[in-house]
Amino acid sequence: MTMTTEKETNQKKIPSMTVRRLFLYYRALLESKDTSVISSEELAEITGFSAAQIRKDLTYFGQFGTPGRGYNIDQLKQKLIQILGVDREWNVALVGAGNLGRALLTYQGFKQQGFKVSTVFDKDKEKVGKSYHGVLISDFAHAKEIIKSHDIRIAIIAVPAVAAQEVVDQLVEAGVSAILNFVPYRIKVPPHIKLLNIDMAAELGRLSYYLTNDVVLAKMPELKEDTL
Amino acid sequence: MTMTTEKETNQKKIPSMTVRRLFLYYRALLESKDTSVISSEELAEITGFSAAQIRKDLTYFGQFGTPGRGYNIDQLKQKLIQILGVDREWNVALVGAGNLGRALLTYQGFKQQGFKVSTVFDKDKEKVGKSYHGVLISDFAHAKEIIKSHDIRIAIIAVPAVAAQEVVDQLVEAGVSAILNFVPYRIKVPPHIKLLNIDMAAELGRLSYYLTNDVVLAKMPELKEDTL
DNA sequence: TTTTTATGTTATAATTATTGACAAGGATAC
DNA sequence: GTATCCTTGTCAATAATTATAACATAAAAA
User: What is the pLDDT along chain B (228 residues), one digit of tens a residue?
Assistant: First the structure.
């Protein structure tokens, strides 16, 4: 029980909440271009997190600031980009060209943050072959080749629930290793696949709960999981 | 320091993760119509959570099962519906009729779960007055009257980031008390407003992080916050 | 009446996250 | 060049949350 298995060395066990906040720090820095230096206190002001927390989050990855001064914005931004792995453009595959899928395809927020939906798949022969917003819709039957040739590691899925598991299985087989799932279905994936679920209807369900059982929150929770 | 303030009596402090899972139990029950009774073990099988956890979650709200037998499906479903407050149809307002907004408007997942997007707002004079999928797009300037007359308590927002805060402020003033925010911007709301953020780009950012710093997860985490 | 089965509940363990405090490091001003 | 001020990096303590396991109890079936 010395090495091997479990957690592959390094990686000091970063809290998942830290990872989440990191991206928000990064986005906040994209805005503030007024000054060249920013203190944890100022960044706290902008993002709504505590200064202590920001400093703690950052030091998981190194020492980026200068005492008595703060953080050099450009430098910190660069570091965050590097940490988050957004120092490149990711090619993302979208599976499902329905209403939601097409909206995701044109969603500017992805592009702005360095994610390019470079391929769209669908099974519908009606859609296959056509282009939507400059992106060709390919037959999902050919997903494997295309994914490999485009070096795609991230996929977004927006297909009917019944098709979800099958689609994901094939994506995994094709070499995709991260999936952003919009389908309201709990997909099973092997442990090495990174899966994130966005369950929009379930979120409304939560709101319905909190509205119904009028939960009075003591204070505005500073983005614990996601507010609330 | 006897009563008043803090947490308004009752409400035994339900873990937020429990609320999340509750909705997933509910959705799972919608499917399984084969039998009339289901055990926590069986429900665990379907949903992927542990049987102990399911029982624990449920008993926050009462005793719904019969020992030696399990849970009566119809009865449990009914209870969950009641707890979640989805025993009615919620009228939801959508603000922002852009690409994303329009996709959300037609998203079947909402309707299926009892949420009806009954009103759409936009500021764009081009869009106002037109209908989209049978729903009239109204001028956001008239939001207050319309929201009040339609008894709308939940709003979904999908507007440009710069407009988000202003829009939310007005929604709150109009009487909306729950907001599902798709805008990648940390909106500030008074403590009594329930706000849930869906930050799609940030989710991709997280995936990018996990992909870059290859984090090997010891085991498939059973939907802690949302997988990963 | 006995056996079986699955719930409800309590206690425990573990994890995870937040907060506060402070020493040390630079920068700036004098 | 020295003193003062400011802000970081980090440690330790605390707090909150969540999950797990075990078991007594209660209903059903045999």
Answer: 222 223 333 456 789 999 999 999 999 999 877 679 999 999 999 998 999 999 999 999 999 999 999 999 999 999 999 999 999 999 999 999 998 999 899 999 999 999 999 999 999 999 999 999 999 999 999 999 999 999 999 999 999 999 999 999 999 999 999 999 999 998 989 888 999 999 999 999 999 999 998 765 433 333 444 555
Instruction: Please spell the DSSP secondary structure of chain B, one letter per residue.
Output: --SSSSS-SS-----HHHHHHHHHHHHHHHH--S-SEE-HHHHHHHHSS-HHHHHHHHHTS---EETTTEEEHHHHHHHHHHHHT-SSPEEEEEE--SHHHHHHHH-HHHHHTTEEEEEEEES-TTTTT-EETTEEEEEGGGHHHHHHHTT--EEEE---HHHHHHHHHHHHHHT--EEEE-SSS-----TTSEEEE--HHHHHHHHHHHHHTT---SS---SSSS--
Decide if A40 touches B, using CB distance below 8 A.
no
Nearest CB neighbour to A206, from listed B196, B215, B217 = B196
Contact A218 B6 (CB under 8 A): yes
Q: Which of residues 51-90 of B touch A (CB under 8 A)?
A: 83-86, 90
The 3-state DSSP class for residue A197 equals strand
A73 C-beta less than 7 Å away from strand D: no
Determine whether the interchain pair B216/A8 forms a contact, defined as Cβ–Cβ distance below 8 Å.
Answer: yes
Q: Does A111 touch chain B (CB under 8 A)?
A: no
Domains in chain A, start-ordered, CATH in brackets?
16-84 (1.10.10.10), 90-203 (3.40.50.720)
B79 conformational bin, left if phi > 0, alpha if psi -120 to 50, beta if neither: alpha
Chain pair A-B, CB pairs under 8 angstroms: 237
Residue type, B212: T
Instruction: Give yes or no for A126 touching B (CB within 8 A).
Output: no
Which one of B200, B219, B224 would you mutate to disrupt binding with A, by most A Cβ within 10 Å of its Cβ?
Answer: B200
With a 7 Å cutoff on the CB, does B39 touch strand C? yes
Contact A27, A69 (CB under 8 A): no
Q: Tokens in use for A93?
A: 């595959």
Residue nearest to nucleotide C20 (CA to C1'): A52
